[in-house]
Structure formats: structure tokens, C-alpha cells
Amino acid sequence: FTNIINKLLNENNGIFVFVSTIIPATSYRGASYDSVTQGIKDLVEDINNDHVILLDMNLYGNTADEVGYNNGHLSALGYDRLALDYVSYISYVISQNTTLFRNIQFIGTNYSYS
Known about the structure:
Blueprint: H1 2-11, E1 17-20, H2 31-47, E2 52-55, H3 57-60, E3 69-70, E4 73-74, H4 76-96, H5 98-101
Parallel strand pairs: 1-2
Antiparallel strand pairs: 3-4
């Protein structure tokens, strides 16, 4: 994953990469879930780049109930919740880091603020 993220960053000047932990689900709990979640957090920390941002959906996701997660998969409501969770979380991150995100309108263009 580190190689993929670094390749994305190197080939796409100025982009942000949001890396998410595993979403919460009623059937995912346990030592292996916790281990993978911690591994994802450690990966983002080890990359140590302010353009690589962790979304801790394990902590802030809203899919771990029988309505959102049904029979091993997200229900339609679960997918709706997940999309709203991502939008809310990313919007929050941007609102708390306005200086970092102030030039996002120029990503992928030949323009810059001067």
C-alpha cells in the first residue's frame, strides 16, 4: 500500500490521499479486525505526509448495526450511511485544515496561486 500511495503522490502533484480503516460491521469484530485497523493507522503514520490523511471509520463509521449491515454485506441504508460518513468526515478534515486545502482547485491543472 505504501508503494501505491507514494506512486499516486509522485505522479499527481498536490493530490490528497485519504486512507480509511475498515468500516465497522457487526460480524467484523475481533483481534484480527483490530490488528488490521492498527496496521492501517501505522501505515499512514509511517508515510508521514500531510497529503496522506487517515479516516478512522472504525471509530467514526455508522454501519455496525443490523439495519446498516445485513447478512455479511452493507444494506442499501448501510451504503447510504457509509457515503454520508465519508462526506462528513472528509468535509470535517478540510474544515479543520483550511490552509492545507486552500489550493485544491488547482490540483490536476497547470495553474497555481501566485
